[in-house]
Every structure is written in structure tokens, then in C-alpha cells.
Amino acid sequence: MRPTLTDAQTLDDQDTLADFKAHFALPDGMLYLDGNSLGAQPNAAREALDATRDQWRDSLIGGWNQGWFDAPERLGNLLAPLIGASEGEVLVSDTITLNLFKLLGYITESQERARPIILSEGGNFPADGYIAEGFCHSAGFEHGVLPEGAALEEHLSDQVAVVVLSQVNYRTGQLRDMAEVNRRIHAKGAEVIWDLAHSAGALAVDLAGSGARYAVGCTYKYLNGGPGAPGFVYVRSDRQQAGWQPLSGWHGHAKPFAFDADYAPASGMTRFRTGTHSALAYAPLEASLKLWQQVDMAALRAKSLALTDLFRACLADLFEAHGIEDITPAPAQRGSQVGLVQREHGYAIVQALIKRGVIGDYREPGLMRFGFTPLYLSHADVWHAAEQFREVVESGEYRDPRFQTRTEVT
Amino acid sequence: MRPTLTDAQTLDDQDTLADFKAHFALPDGMLYLDGNSLGAQPNAAREALDATRDQWRDSLIGGWNQGWFDAPERLGNLLAPLIGASEGEVLVSDTITLNLFKLLGYITESQERARPIILSEGGNFPADGYIAEGFCHSAGFEHGVLPEGAALEEHLSDQVAVVVLSQVNYRTGQLRDMAEVNRRIHAKGAEVIWDLAHSAGALAVDLAGSGARYAVGCTYKYLNGGPGAPGFVYVRSDRQQAGWQPLSGWHGHAKPFAFDADYAPASGMTRFRTGTHSALAYAPLEASLKLWQQVDMAALRAKSLALTDLFRACLADLFEAHGIEDITPAPAQRGSQVGLVQREHGYAIVQALIKRGVIGDYREPGLMRFGFTPLYLSHADVWHAAEQFREVVESGEYRDPRFQTRTEVT
Under CATH, what is the fold of the domain A5-17+297-403? Predict the structure, then answer.
């Protein structure tokens, strides 16, 4: 039986996270299933941004002594419990791309450059591979690709220094078993850097419990930090005294205000800081992370699975007749997204949905990607979004020429 | 004769830049001589930030197709005329530190790594040296230091790949002859990267006219972009097709939305982009740069020299009796700052001034540093600031114990 609106509303009545929705500013008439690209705006984030805007005007240079300077460490400590890390293990800094570069340099130096190969994975968001290539090109390492679906052991050897892996695949939503992968890669003497872009804030990441040593991530998706909000870097505490990272900026110096001639890395995560960061970019993220402190991550995960399953159940009867393939992984291997593939019309269906105010996104070839953010989506929202999808597909309105024109979306 | 307030007001009456002051939000009762650390807030920057804040709320992911994505190139083109560059030669991106790293990799690759030494200068802001060290450490180059005041030729050889130099020294305000230095270094087959942190927006930088090929800078000082606003990178158009920069992010890819497996650099300055940037950090900077389009840079320079000379003339009679040394360079070699050294009491004098609302800063050993920003300082402001300095020194109030405690300021 297809779920009814009443079914969805019953689930909302039982939802312990339902009150969080009031903390977000959501445009009227929009059903936003793209929080996995850019998260919605918490009201507190808006207020924090305004306060920092005024602090620039009123305190000018004094703002750096009123909380701006220590934001990378302070926000890192707010983020830590959301990903299973401890105080002093996370720094909010730069971007995911730059943090990957730092870790590649840091780890290979700690290995005394004894292993020449850096592996990144094929079939995933290619940005991690690009920066791994750049690192290898610059620092004299060899870049290798782990093909999608390949057996890990076939590509591991005593020549592999580091493997860069995403916990959740951006296209398919496939969730990796972090503990198992860590065990297998560490057993070969290699290190893993986990990309948490599609898992931090989407589910209860357990870095400590899974034996992870290194990770990076971004905060503008599920963590609601704002467009292009800073990235983060995690290094387990017992791996924090191993020397330099290559992007050795003055904020990462042991004594940044001594203006010493030579670089000396700060202790702990501070060494991963680079130059002067944007106080305006950190302010809304800090407010968002404070909101996240109140979230029960087990409840978040349960609601994420309920929302994704509700959306699929509302549409399952459509799939065969309309050539749609549901590639959403089983719950235990699922991130917080639904993937529906329609090779011929996927792009146009997404455009027609956007026109109706249902925001998802499209990735070649044929993938309609819908992200589910438990803090600001109700079960009723998901039911209504599925109804819109049904109408677009059953009416054939996606065949309108205006929905065929390709424009690029990040 | 010491200038009088009437003298200062007469200069204000003749000031063609006087109207710009109304475009800035300045705290009541503050005389801000630290715009060389963090520039004041233009009203338009505040409005632009608010608009982007609302765009995040209302357009969500759609904002990336409404101007956010192309901001690095668009703002670069706004900045270009202020530093003597052409359209397509400047990119606003990341930070000065990271842009230096990119250029070091880019240039040494174009030289086929034939020269093993990177030189940075001693006696200047050490951040450039730190990142040069990090690059050398990671990429296998040798880092050398050009001692302050050393003859350039003694340190140049066919082993030197790149020299990193500041156009204006952050401590002394000493302005280098960019054309002459370019000629001498290029004659030895080496390249120069110019750090414009204390010259962009402080004077009429002429990159094209001086034969400069590479430069980096920041926008949060004289250019009023906001706390930690993004940096910029300049590569002369004829040097833009020489391959990779090491921080190869997906926004710098030739086809970022094709999600190709392999990195391929975009043409032109876009290859210097890395990952997703903060839309909130770019918004106020764009508004500030638009304001700067209206500034006559020759008038700016003339006013800068007039303001710095006025401040010194107001105080010259104090210096000998109070052990103060005026290290401000002669006009032709001066940035837009005044340097006064009092080894024993410099720190306390600056603190006493801050308490009175006259904001300067202090750098060891003994340096009181005052920045002069012609867009929002009047001659009368400078006269009043000098009067406050006189009162602090003549009264001895800086001897109060509360002004002796050291706190760190960026």
C-alpha cells in the first residue's frame, strides 16, 4: 500500500526531532531535497553573521581578540562530538580540498616517504582525486586510482602510502563500513583519509569507534554552515606530533605573534591552520554547530532512514512503467539520500520538479539525486515532494522543451 | 611651525577624496590608524553581505548560479585596475599564503625544476617565508633567506628559481622600486613573486608598467574586504599557459561539472581556483571593490603622503625629548604608514592611545605603527590623533601599570 498523507503525519507526530524545523528559515512553497549540496539557513546562523558584521564595523581590528582568532579550534571542538572525535582532534579550516593536501603531506612525511603511491577512488566525486594528483605532481608521488567496486586488497601493497576514501558516495549514497575498511588498510601498513562530506551531519559518524586516524569534511551540506563554509580536518590525538604539513601558514606557527624567522609547527591541530581566515564565514557555522549540539544522532539516523524509505515507498509503483531504477542502497549501507536513475528523462524531470519548487539535483548519467535532512524536513514534506514527482512523471510535463536545456549547477 | 587644526581643515577643504568618508561606517569617537591591519567597513559592503545572507536563505543552492560561482574571476577583474593589471590577469582566491604556494609550484614547474633555491626575505612579515619553507619541504626545494638590507646580486645565482619580496615592508613601510628589482632579478633568469599586502589600495601599484609577472596580496587591509577577506593572485597574461599549480582543486578544472576522472587545468587564471569558496566572504569585498573603481589613485597617493607627513609634522618636536625615533621612509620610498620607535615605552604608548580611541598597533622591538587610509581619514582626524599622542607622551600616562600588560593582537 502506498503511504497516505495521514501516514506521514502520524510519523511526524511521533518525531522527536520535529521541533528543529522551527530553527530554520525555509522559503515559502519550496520542498528542499538538496541539503546534501547546500544546507538551509538556521535562524541563529543569520543572527551570528549579523553580529560579526557589526563587530567588524564597531571593533575593527579588536575583533580578532574577541573570538575570531580562536574560531578554528573552537568550532572544531563543537564539531568533534558529531563525528565521534574528541576535543582537540578537529580543526575547522580552509576547504576539504586544501585539508586533503595538508594530510597527504603530513602523513607521507611521517612515513618518511617510504611508500610512493597515493590511491584515490574512481566513481566518486573527483575533487579528492584532483588534489591527490596535484599533491603527487608537486611532491613527487605516484597517483593511482582504485576503480569503483574493485577489491581493496588487489590494489593495496607495501608501495601504497595513503588511500583517500569517501564514507558515503556522493552519487549513489553508498555508505562504507569504516571500521572494516580501516582494519584492512591499516593491516597493509597504509593509511586512510576519510572524506566525510556526505556523512558528517547525515548520520552518526564514529571516527574513534571505527579506528579512523585521519579525516576531512565540509560544513556547508548537512551541517548548515552557509555557502562555501569552511572545511574541517581530523587527526586522531596519537597522530598529532608527527611534524609538518606542507601548507605551513603563520596561524599554524608555534608562536604566530613572535614573528620568528623560521617556521615551527604549533602543537596539536593548530599546525593545520594556514593564513588569516574569514571571520564572516565562521560566524554562521558556529551558530549552526551549537544547534547541532542538541541533536540526538541516533534519532537523526532513524529519521533519515524513515524519510528516504517513505519517499521511495510513495513512488515505488511508478518506477517500472516509467523506466526508473531505484539505486538507493539498503538501510545499513545508505547515506541520507535517494538515487533514482532515468537515463533518458532524468535531467528534465529534475528541472520540472525545480520549477514546481521541489529542489533536487541531477548528476550524469541519468541520476536524480534527493537529499534528506532530518532537522528541517517533515514526513509530510516528503510525502508532498513525492506527490509532485508523481504528477511530473505521470503528466509527462517534463517533456516540455524548456526543461531540456542544460545549465550547470554545483 | 607645528601645523594647527586650521591648517588641517584647510587641507580637508581642498581634498578631492573627502566625500569617500561618508561611504564608511566608523565607530563614534574612534580615530582608526590601523586600516593597514583591517580596513573599515564600507556601507555598501554591509548591504552586500546582507543581500548574500538573504540569498542563502531564499535561493539556497540556486545562489551558485546567481553570481557566487564566478566571483573569483569577477572580483579579480574589479581589482585589476587598482594594481596595474589587465582583465583576466587577477583571481580573488583563498589567502595570500595559499596563493604563494600555488605560484611557487606553478613557476618552478614552468622552469622544469632546473633551479633548486627559493629565496624569501628576512626582516619582513614572516608568513611568506613560512609558506616558502613548507613548499620547499614538500616539493624538494631549498629555502634561502635574503637578509634585510643585503645586496640582491650577492644572493642571486643561476640556482635561484624564485624570490618572494614585499613591495612595502610591513614594519618600516619601506617601498621597493618594483621596476628596478624586476629588471635585476629577471636579468639573472629568476622570477619574483610580489607580495602586495601593504601596497594594494595604499598606493598606485603598477604591475604592468614595472614588468612584474607574478604577485599575490590580501584584501582585508587597505581594500576593505572584511576580516579575513580572500586573497588574490596575479599572473601576467603571457605566463598563464604554463601548466599546473599544485593545489589543483575542482573549481580550477577545465570542466568542473563534467566530473572527469583526471585533473586538467582550466585556461587562464581559473586554474588557480581550488575548492568551493565562501560566498559570504566574497560579497562585502565585491561591494568594496566597486567603491574603489571610483578612486583616483594619483589623488590617493598624494593624500597618503600628505596625511603621513602631517602626522609627523605635528609630533616632530616631541621626538628627541622622549627618545622616539621616526623611521618613516622618505616620500618616494614610503608606503602609507608612519613608524615611530620608542624601545622602552612603545608598547605602553600604543595601549594608552587605544584606551583613548586612537587605534594604532605595536610590533617588537619598540615599533609604534600607524596606517593612514586616505578614503576614510581626514587631515583633521590625523591632527586630532597626533594631539592625543602628544598628550599621552607629555602626561606620562602610558606609565600606568594597566598599559604594560602584553596581549597578542594580529
Answer: Aspartate Aminotransferase, domain 1 (3.90.1150)
